[in-house]
Amino acid sequence: MTVNEQILDYPIPSDSALEPPPEWAELRGACPVASVRLPSGDRATLLTRYADVKQVLADPRFTRLLNAPDAARLSAEGGGVFNSEMAQIVPDGGEGHQHWRRLVGRWFTAKRMSALRPAMTEIAERLVDDMVERGAPGDLRADLGFPLPVYVICDMLGVPAADRDRFAYWSDTLLNLTRYGKAETDAAQAEFVDYMSGHVAAKRAAPGEDLLSELIAVGGPEGGGLSDVQIMVTGMGLLVAGHETTANMIGKMVSMLLADRSRWERLLAEPSLVRTAVEESLRLDANAGFGLPRYLSEEIEVSGTVLPRGTTVICSMAAANRDESAFAAAAEMDLGRSPNPHLAFGSGAHSCLGQALARTELQVVLEVLLRRLPSLELAVPVEELERVEGLAVGGLRAVPVRW
C-alpha cells in the first residue's frame, strides 16, 4: 500500500536515531497533504513539502487555537503545551502577539546574545572540565547538552538553576504525547504554575537584573505591559523552550558530526565553518519532534487540496528541510552550505523568539568541544543511539562519548 492510500500514525516512527523515516520522502513526492492519526486517535493533516510548510506558517488563517472544540487533540490525555488553556493566555496573532514579541524579544537580540557569549563559553568550559575530571566515557547530553542551556535560561529569568531537575520534569509533562497520564500531567503543571507565579510575585517585591523583572517594570496592560498571568506563562514557556529544545539539539548536533568522522576532522581543520555547520545540523535534524500544529479558521487550499475550516494541520519542518526542491543534495550534510533558509525555527510572525539564543549556545558548545576535546568520538556505534520517546520534542536518551 502506498503512503497516499493509507492513514499513517503520527509521529511516524524511525528505526534510526539520526535518520528520517522513509515515509517522509514518499509523502513529499506522492502525498504532500496527508491524513494522519495522532496519538489521541484524532485525525490531522500532515504537510511535508518546504513550500507548503512555509506558506502555512506565514498565513494568519492558520492559528494556534488548538483548544477549539473541533481541533484535534494531540495526546489522548489532552492538555500539554499545544492544547492547554495556558497556550491561549499570550495573544495568538495580530497586534497583541506582535506587542508581546516586541516586549520579550528585546532579551533575545543578536547583540544581546553576543554580550552573553563569554559567560556561555565559561559555563561550557567548566562543564567540559567536570566531564574530563570524571573520565571517559561520558554522556554528552547529561554532562553538557542539558546543563548549559538550563544555566543560561535560568540566569536570564532570574530563577535558581538548583531547581533544574524540577524544571526538566515539568517541561517533559508539558511536552507530553504518550509518556505520562492525565493525573500526573495535571499535578505537575499545577506545581509549575504555583512555582512560577510565586517567582513573579517575588520579582515584583524585589526586582533583579532579569527578563521577568524587566517585564514587570514596564507595568500592567494599561501601561502597555503584560498582566502577571501573561508574565508567568511567558516565564514558563521560555523555561521549557529555552532548555528542552536546545539541550536536545546539542546532543543531536554532536552525534551527527561524529557519526561521520570526516565531518569532525573538517571542522578541526576549518573552525570558521562552525556557524554554517550549526545551521546545517539544524536543517538535517531528523529527530526534531512533533512539528508545529495549526488550526484552520476558514477553508483554504494547500498544494491543490482544499482543507475545510476546523482542520488541524501539522507542519513537519524537519521533513520540509529535506525537500530537494528547496535544497540541493538535501539528504547530504554540507558543513559549508550557504545560504541555508531552513525552517528549524519556523517562519513568519511565529518564528522562534529564542533562535539567536539557541544558535549562540550551539556555536559556543561546538567551538569549546573542538578546542578542548579534538579527539572526541562516539563511545557506541551510531546504531545504538536511542531516541527520546513519547514527547513533542525530539532528542537522544544519551550521547555516550570518549576522547
Automatic annotation (TrEMBL):
It holds the Pfam family p450. The keyword Oxidoreductase applies. The keyword Metal-binding applies. Keywords: Heme, Iron, Metal-binding, Monooxygenase, Oxidoreductase. SUPFAM superfamilies: Cytochrome P450. CDD domains: Cyp158A-like. Its cofactor is heme. InterPro entries: Cyt_P450 (IPR001128), Cyt_P450_B (IPR002397), Cyt_P450_CS (IPR017972), Cyt_P450_sf (IPR036396). PANTHER family: CYTOCHROME P450 BJ-1, P450, PUTATIVE (EUROFUNG)-RELATED. Belongs to the cytochrome P450 family. This is Cytochrome P450.
